[in-house]
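Why do we care about 3D structure at all? Because function follows from shape, and shape follows, mostly, from sequence. That is the central idea of this module. The next example makes it concrete: a single protein chain, its amino acid sequence, and then its structure expressed as tokens.
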Amino acid sequence: MKPNKPPPNSNQDLQAEAHSLGLHASKPILDTKRFINGVSAGRQPSLIREMTKILAAAPPEMIPLSGGFPNPEMFPFKNLTLSVENGSPINLSGKSLQSALQYLPTNGHPALLKQLKDLQLEVHKPGEAVWNNTDIVVTSGSQDGLCKAFEMMMEKGSSVLVEDFVYSGTLSIINPYEPKYHIIESDDKGMKPESLKKVLAHWTPGEESKHIPKFLYINPTGANPTGTVLPLDRRREIYQLCCEYNLLLLEDDPYYYLQFEEKSLRPPSFFSLDTEGRVIRFDSFSKILSSGIRLGFVTGPKPLIERIVLHMQVSVLHASSLSQVITTNLLEQWGQEGFFNHIDNVETFYKNRRDKMLEAADKNLKGLCEYSVPLGGMFLWMKIPGLTSTWDMIMERGLKKNIMLMPGKAFQPDMDKPCSYLRAAFSIAPEDKFEPAMERLAELIKEEIEIETIKKKY
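And the structure:
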């Protein structure tokens, strides 16, 4: 994809300001050894996988006797045509389809990797020193990359820095390690830097100990479940604290291309602000192209991306070839301008749905719930001040009334604590059901408050 117009979610004025403040000044690139656990450090390249990479770039004269590639003449699929909205059909047949159904190098389809590198350069404009030490790997959805990044770093009982409410899929990855959670407070703008600073004060900058966290995990844009977008000033403070205490910053950003603020108000990414090569960024196609194609991509320091690649070599081998080829063809057809136009349409679609859910919530939940307008993502995050816990209300009584929500407890690192929050998704339910859904929720809350009141008496 060649650049055609400024990207929709990257504020060039704010990025220029970051440069002017010296955030892209030349600094030493991070020594990554402390972040790699023993298992990950012990991984060695698979020769078969490395030969696949060589074969992908080999001239036609090469005679391939090295790999156990199945012969595509025996593949039963002979042609595939996908219609594209406001575009030309994607047609795969013959050699092009055979290639799309064959093994790929672990890092990803070479053409797609080139498109993704061009996209990251255009959108995030990383500093030269950081970019020269950066690599990208295509993963089976961004969560696959996130899982392998955690598995690269964590040991049993590792210390982990997270917000008070975290994407439940992330907790499912981390919890089997029986970690020591250090909880960072957040508000309607996202993570609070002063809370992070207070937690980090338990250690001394530069101190070497297995009890010191290796990373900070953060979902900064359209956060799941809260819908917050972390402002630039907080991003700067948080990044500087990561530098001071030698932490990796895991920027889990699947909703980056799903923001609702004016483009001039959108903050640059942590990857854009990175000067030391300490950000690993996780992007996803699930929210903007298709969740079923299972494609994401991880961008970060070469030594750490290499560890993720080596893990993939012995697990999934690579993300779906067919999905990668289809996506490559689509991005080639669109160019960057077409891609950004599509993002504009996606954001408009979800912003309209958000507004309609807010309208229904404002009408029915006044005095019962507290919530802020989500600035990105797919969720309305609500607190029920009159309740101690929303779990039974949602998991038992709500299902009986034919309304499904997510209890806030599912997003807490400590699930034993009661939680008065809940999450409502505005992404998929029919819009004409928002009003009856909020009516049912209001009824549920009133009933639950009565139940809790009676319990307290006895």
